[in-house]
Amino acid sequence: MSMTKVICFANNKGGSGKSTTCSNVGYAMSAMGKRVLLIDGDMQMNLTLSFFDEETALEYAKNGKNLYTAMREQKDLYDFIVPTEYENLDMIPSSTLMSSIEFELFTKWQREFILRQGLTKIMALNKYDYILIDSPPTLGCWVMNIMCASDYLIVPVEASPWGLFGLANMFEFYEQVKQIAPKLELMGIAVTKASERKNYFKQTMETLAELDNVRLFENYIRIDSTVEWAQDNSKPVCAYKKSSRAAGEYTKLTEEVLKYANR
């Protein structure tokens, strides 16, 4: 029986910090000795670009060593894993062609479970402690695939006036997915891009805290320019500058995630 746990990061609102949260939680897990596989499910390739320079990322997109090729051809994902420069941390890169994945899946048999099927060998080998999946900012068949393949869902939410927009749709979609994937559990909301000096930060936190049956992670991520410098250097901020505030906050968030997953 595989002990690998699969966590997806999803929010239909763009700019919520999904890729940044996924990359840094993944890196922090690996730095703590966990074996981690990251899967980039978004055509924007931000997760891929968090670990590889643009030239390398585009080469993976071009040579077929990417998630889109695996899904289109319904192949086992094991053969699409590439190592990152960090110990215990591997990745399945994305491709800009992921923009057409909804069309590719439309005619497939049991299309909601194709990603889960693709993970069969990886799960059976128990090669990783955690698989983290980054999702595009949509609510369709592909995101349903990602959720159906996962044990836990983390919803990053930007602490801004627009950050809560569409969140009700996100939770409604989650409830729909639960009907065909009852094991999927909402681990919680991770607040990102927080500025404690702004009035809307307090309003956002109060609104989220009042949601029924929705857990709010205690550790949130404040705005830190180091994150952008890390992205510019194709590194997660936890690797780029371990002493930065953002790195410390993502590390604490990761500890909270691990505690929940192992409760």
Draw up the topology in text.
Blueprint: E1 5-9, H1 18-31, E2 36-40, H2 46-49, H3 54-63, H4 67-72, E3 82-83, E4 89-92, H5 101-106, H6 114-118, H7 120-125, E5 130-134, H8 141-148, E6 152-158, H9 167-180, E7 185-192, H10 199-209, H11 225-232, H12 237-240, H13 245-261
Class of secondary structure makeup: alpha/beta
Number of helices: 13
Main pleated-sheet profile = 7 strands, mixed
CATH architecture: 3-Layer(aba) Sandwich
How would you spell out the order of helices and strands? EHEHHHEEHHHEHEHEHHHH
Mean pLDDT: 92
Overall, the morphology is globular
Radius of gyration: 17 Å
N/C terminus separation: 18 Å
Quaternary state reads single chain
What is the CATH fold-level name?
Rossmann fold
Strand content is: 5-15%
What count of structural domains?
A: 1
Strand order of the largest sheet: 3-4-2-5-1-6-7
The CATH superfamily appears as: P-loop containing nucleotide triphosphate hydrolases
| Secondary structure: helix percent | 40-55%
Query: Which regions have little confidence, pLDDT < 50, spanning 5+ residues?
Result: none
Number of strands: 7
CATH class: Alpha Beta
Could you explain how this protein is built, in words?
The chain is of the alpha/beta class and 263 residues long. The protein has one domain: 3-Layer(aba) Sandwich (Rossmann fold). 43% of the residues lie in helices and 14% in strands. The chain has 13 helices and seven strands. The chain has helices at residues 18-31, 46-49, 54-63, 67-72, 101-106, 114-118, 120-125, 141-148, 167-180, 199-209, 225-232, 237-240, 245-261; strands spanning 5-9, 36-40, 82-83, 89-92, 130-134, 152-158, 185-192. Strands 3-4-2-5-1-6-7 form a seven-stranded mixed beta sheet. A hairpin with a 5-residue loop joins strand 3 and strand 4. Helix 1 packs across helix 13 (245-261). The longest helix is centred in the C-terminal third of the chain and has 17 residues, at 245-261. It is globular and about 50 Å long. The two termini are 18 Å apart.
